Amino acid sequence: MKNIYFLSDAHLGSWGIPHGRTQERRLVRFLDSIKEKAGAIYLLGDIFDFWYEYKYVVPRGYTRFLGKLSELTDMGVEIHFFTGNHDIWAYNYLERECGVILHKQPLTTEIYGKVFFMAHGDGLGDPSKKFKLLRWVFHNSFCQVAFSTIHPRWSIWMGQTWAKHSYLKHKETGIPPYMGENKEFLVRYTRQYMQMHPNIDYYMYGHRHIELDLQLTKKARVMILGDWINQFTYAVFDGEHMFLEEFIEGESRP
Fold first, then answer.
1. N or C end of the chain: smaller count of CB under 10 Å?
2. With DSSP H G I counted as helix, E B as strand and the rest as coil, what are the percentages for the chain, rounded to 5?
3. 157 vs 245: which has the higher pLDDT
4. Helix, strand or coil for residue 172?
């Protein structure tokens, strides 16, 4: 029985991260370290800081990461790629060229007899009206077609600049720490969702850039996976136990 891995929020290619190439190499080393042990890897969104696919053009860079994804899928490892709020605009390039399985909506699936609900986490209970408006614009098909008419020289620059501004703003204000069960919107959403879906064992999210492992009931457990900018955290399920771990230069620790 092989392990199942979960991670999110690498924001590869961010113009706001000074150690971006080192960060990408670190993620690639992690993927390389688990390739013989992994049955599947779930990438739960915002793996890229900005990703927009044209029919014949994709953003430059990420060659080490994309090559490692292709190597793993060629080996038979399932790679599940969830779009987040920074890489919404993935269409079929990653599926065709790298062999990943693309998810644009939350996924409920069974793994080793346990039921998982997985999503990036954006749009699930977030009360911010500004964020809801931006999310609607980014997901709107007309807006996507209109953006596609802009030459990649400018559209990708615009997207990278916007993403950098967003990252630096959050860096300046700081990521809000865990706010408690009554205020953390992903926990609130999970509590509401589980009332109608009592069969789910694990709820897995990214988006918030915090580490959280919370047992809500005897059955239901919610995990927020941190990030791969500063924390380098991931979850691993061995078929019986779930652990939240940190990758440290080829090693992992609970």
1. C
2. 35, 25, 40
3. 245
4. helix
Q: How far apart are CA 238 and CA 91, in angstroms?
A: 31
Beta-strand ranges (E) seen in 75-160 are: 78-82, 101-103, 107-111, 114-119
Buried b or exposed e, range 4-40, using 16+ CB within 10 angstroms: bbbbbbbbbbbbbbeebeebbebbbebbeebeeebbb
CB 214 within 8 A of CB 221: yes
Give the amino acid at 250: G
Average model confidence (pLDDT) for the chain? 89
Q: What is the SS3 assignment for 211? A: strand
Tell me which residue of 231, 202, 232, 206 sits closest to 217, measured CA to CA.
202
Dig out the tokens for 143 from the structure.
């807006």
In Å, how far are 7, 150, 193, 244 from 236, measured between CA atoms?
9, 41, 24, 7
Does this model's pTM top 0.85? My answer is yes
pLDDT tens per residue across span 42-59: 999 999 998 888 888 888
What does the pLDDT look like over 97-156, one tens digit per residue? Answer: 999 999 999 999 999 999 999 999 998 977 777 766 777 777 678 777 777 778 777 778
DSSP string, 179-203: --TTT-HHHHHHHHHHHH-TT--EE
